[in-house]
Automatic annotation (TrEMBL):
Gene3D superfamilies recorded: 1.10.287.130, Histidine kinase-like ATPase, C-terminal domain
UniProt keyword list: Kinase, Membrane, Phosphoprotein, Transferase, Transmembrane, Transmembrane helix
Lineage, top ranks: Bacteria, Pseudomonadati, Bacteroidota, Cytophagia, Cytophagales
Subcellular location per the Swiss-Prot or TrEMBL entry: Membrane
Ranges where the Histidine kinase domain occurs: 226-438
Protein name per Swiss-Prot or TrEMBL: histidine kinase
Reaction equation(s) it catalyzes: ATP + protein L-histidine = ADP + protein N-phospho-L-histidine
Length: 438
């Protein structure tokens, strides 16, 4: 998972956890606030009642007579005010929840009870507000509070996503620059447009490291050039000397046989060195891909070149290529070597009188070229090892040195060709080359 996705998920998860905690805490808090506001409202109404009594007298609430009482409920029974004379010993000032029966209906109220004295008499003032109204107000507050919290969380998640994207943009630029590197020589150190010191340090470190890698590859190229001269030249000189000795009629037959064996050994050594140098040069991209190669013509050239070997083993080669593509950026000689090695292996490990079929078919933007043989096949546990250098099955001609398929894999990677091998011991092998982005 990308770093940006992880940071976004972490930010969203923390906010969701906070939201869940608030959802759990919110109801009791809102209820507490609603009751507190109700109590404050009851106290305000008490002050208003006392202001009226002070201004208009107690008679504005009570009728004539000392035992008269006063009670008033609003239309929906949401609030009430009552006043009645009581004994001084019954005074108990409080605010509490209590049930009241109003017109044969029991209603739960939040009631302020307050005793006071006026003109030598003691009265009980009660001001109440319906708890259903309080709960409805509390429910409304909770709902809108949840809407608000959810909106804030959603908004902050999008803001965090945008901020993280902007914050990590330098890292994205660094990754894209690294992904475009096909070879160390193609890397060009560039400054990073950011003021974040961590990313600046990372970019400078990568630039320095790639500079060191480029220098190492430059030295390797020089080494390869030196090796090709220092090793192949002495081998060629030794081969010429052996040929001169073999041409001398005075050399005994026993010595001549040994000279022939030495000549074969030198030839084998020269082939191995040339194969290793070829692989190294390809991996170091010392070859150009500036040719247009017709795949059908390439296959035909390989078949023509190798037909003599097939005839010696009585192996028939057939071709069936439909809609043969033209590779735009390729190296003909390397592709020829790659396909030649594949077909040569199909001949080498085929049975006497066997066959090889080269089939090509286009699939969307890909072209699949399959070389199938009727040879000895490869054991399933050996398939992952066939591209390893110097790893080979027993070659009937004794000439194989285990680098043919290593060259095939190297050329395929150089041309971005996908290799797929399937085999069944005793029945043959299918070697598929998938050319992409045609």
């Amino acid at each position: 998972m990308k770093l940006q996705s992880k940071l976004t998920l972490f930010s969203a998860a923390t906010k969701i956890i906070i939201l869940l905690v608030l959802v759990m805490v919110l109801p009791p808090v809102v209820n507490r606030i609603a009751l507190h506001n109700t109590d404050q409202r009851l106290l305000q109404k008490k002050e208003q009642v006392f202001d009226i009594i002070e201004e208009r007298g107690l008679e504005s609430f009570l009728s004539d007579g000392a035992d008269d009482t006063y009670g008033s409920y609003n239309l929906l029974k949401e609030e009430f005010i009552s006043m009645e004379p009581i004994d001084p010993s019954q005074i108990n000032n409080r605010i509490e929840n209590t049930l009241r029966k109003v017109e044969d209906e029991v209603v739960e109220y939040r009631v302020l009870s307050l005793g006071f004295e006026l003109h030598g008499a003691t009265y009980l003032l009660e001001i109440g507000r319906s708890l259903d109204t309080i709960r409805e107000t509390s429910s409304t507050l909770q709902r809108y509070a949840l809407y608000f919290l959810f909106s804030v969380v959603l908004l902050t998640v999008f803001m965090d996503l945008a901020f993280i994207k902007v914050l990590l943009r330098p890292l994205t630029l660094i990754l894209r620059k690294l992904q475009r590197i096909g070879h160390p020589d193609s890397f060009k150190p560039t400054p990073l447009p950011t003021n974040t010191s961590d990313f600046v340090f990372l970019n400078e470190t990568i630039n320095t490291m790639m500079g060191q890698v480029k220098e190492a590859f430059r030295k390797e190229k020089e080494f390869i050039g030196n090796v090709s001269h220092e090793l192949l030249t002495p081998i060629s000189i030794l081969q010429n000397r052996l040929e001169n000795l073999m041409a001398d009629l005075a050399v005994p037959d026993t010595v001549l046989l040994k000279l022939v064996e030495n000549q074969k050994t030198l030839h084998r050594l020269k082939s191995i060195i040339q194969a290793l140098l070829l692989i190294s040069r390809i991996e170091n991209e010392q070859y150009l891909k500036n040719e247009r190669v017709n795949l059908l013509a390439l296959v035909q050239d390989v078949v023509d070149e190798i037909s003599d070997r097939a005839e010696l083993k009585n192996v028939t080669i057939s071709m069936s290529l439909s809609q043969s593509p033209v590779l735009q950026k390729a190296n003909y000689s390397l592709l020829f070597t790659m396909l030649f090695n594949v077909v040569n292996n199909a001949i080498k490990y085929n049975k006497e009188g066997g066959s090889i079929h080269i089939d090509g078919v286009r699939k969307d933007t890909r072209y699949e070229l399959c070389v199938s043989d009727t040879g000895t096949g490869i054991a399933e546990d050996q398939l992952p090892k066939i591209f390893s250098r110097f790893k080979r099955n027993h070659a009937p001609d004794g000439e194989s040195h285990g680098l043919g398929l290593a060259i095939v894999q190297t050329v395929a990677k150089f041309h971005r060709i996908k290799l797929d091998v399937s085999s069944e011991p005793g029945k043959g092998t299918d070697f598929k080359l998938v050319f992409k982005e045609l």
